[in-house]
Amino acid sequence: MERKALIRTALDGLGRSYAPYSHFHVSAALLCRDGKVYTGNNIENAAYSPGICAERCAFAKAVSEGEREFEAIVICGGPDGKAGDYCPPCGVCRQVMREFCKPDSFCIILAKSAEEYREYTLAQLLPESFGPDHLGGV
Ligand code: THU
Q1: Is the residue at 110 inside a domain?
Q2: Pocket of ligand 1 (CB under 6 A)
Q3: Alpha helices, H only, 74-121
Q4: Was 101 annotated as part of a binding site?
Q5: What is the dihedral of CA 93, 39, 115, 33, to 10 degrees?
Q6: What is the residue range of 34's domain?
Q7: Quick check: is 138 in a domain?
Q8: Per-residue b/e over 75-90, b at no fewer than 16 CB within 10 Å?
Q9: How many distinct structural domains can be found in the chain?
Q10: Which residues are catalytic?
Q11: Ligand 1 pocket check: which of 16, 23, 26 to mutate, most ligand atoms within 8 Å of Cβ?
């Protein structure tokens, strides 16, 4: 899938965030190697800690459907659903990506719009990381 189409998919999903506590809406679109795209949103909770980030929501949907190979993820969001600034993935989400993605090739796209975005590899955002290979692989 083309970059801009993946970005538009993420931007289109911003309205589906459930963020009544932070009012910070995040949306993700995860591209699998087979071409399928899984979206995700942050889902907050009155007890706070059960809340989940948009990126992990997308990975949970994809992995639970049998996907294991991933190319790229677009992340966007901001206060009240306005993607006015870049929204980098939290540390926990970076580690979840590390479980399933190749650090040197998995592409993390932070988008404000289909025209304004930045691209990183997972290795850039999570250097010297610990992953499945340290435990003998899976
Ligand atoms: N959030 C995400 O969904 N992804 C991130 O990587 C950063 C933070 C969400 C969690 C919470 O619902 C809100 O943004 C404010 O932290």
Answers
A1: yes
A2: 19, 22, 24, 26, 42, 44, 51, 53-55, 89-90, 93
A3: 91-100
A4: no
A5: 80
A6: 1-132
A7: no
A8: bbbbeebebeebbebe
A9: 1
A10: 55
A11: 26
* pLDDT profile of the chain (138 residues), mean per 10: 93 98 98 98 98 98 98 97 95 98 98 97 98 89
Q: Is 137 within the bounds of a domain?
A: no
Residue 12 sits in a domain of what CATH number?
A: 3.40.140.10
Ligand 1, atom 1: closest residue by C-alpha: 53
Q: What is the pTM of this model?
A: 0.97
- 7-22: pLDDT as tens digits: 999 999 999 999 999 9
95 and 64 in contact (C-beta within 8 Å)?
A: no
Chain center to CA of 127: 18
CA of 136 to the centre of ligand 1 (A): 31
Determine whether the annotation assigns residue 107 to a binding site.
no
Is 68 within a domain? yes
Going from the Cα of 42 to the center of ligand 1, the distance in angstroms, rounded, reads: 6
